[in-house]
Amino acid sequence: MKAFLAAMAALVVIMIGANQILVHSDFSASAVSASSGNVRLHD
């Protein structure tokens, strides 16, 4: 039972850490794929 609780605690710590890394890494859709130079618009 102690091993299970330790694994759950580790899982929570890993999830919080991964969330913080992804939030601060600026991988938003607008930052990664927004490009107006490659768009062809009809005149």
How are the SSEs ordered, and which strands pair?
Blueprint: H1 2-24, H2 29-33
Q: Tell me the Rg in angstroms.
A: 20 Å
In angstroms, what separates the terminal alpha carbons?
69 Å
Seen as an oligomer or otherwise, the chain set is single chain
Biggest sheet overview: none
How many H/I helices?
A: 2
Relative helix content? 55-70%
The helix/strand series, from N terminus to C terminus, equals HH
Which structural category do the helix and sheet elements fall into? mainly alpha
Overall pLDDT level: 83
Task: Extract low-pLDDT stretches.
Answer: none
Overall 3D form: rod-shaped
Structural account:
With 43 residues, this protein is mainly alpha-helical. The radius of gyration is 20 Å and the shape is rod-shaped. It starts with a helix and ends in a 10-residue tail after the last helix. The chain contains two helices and no strands.
Provide a quick synopsis of the model.
By secondary structure, the chain is an all-alpha fold.
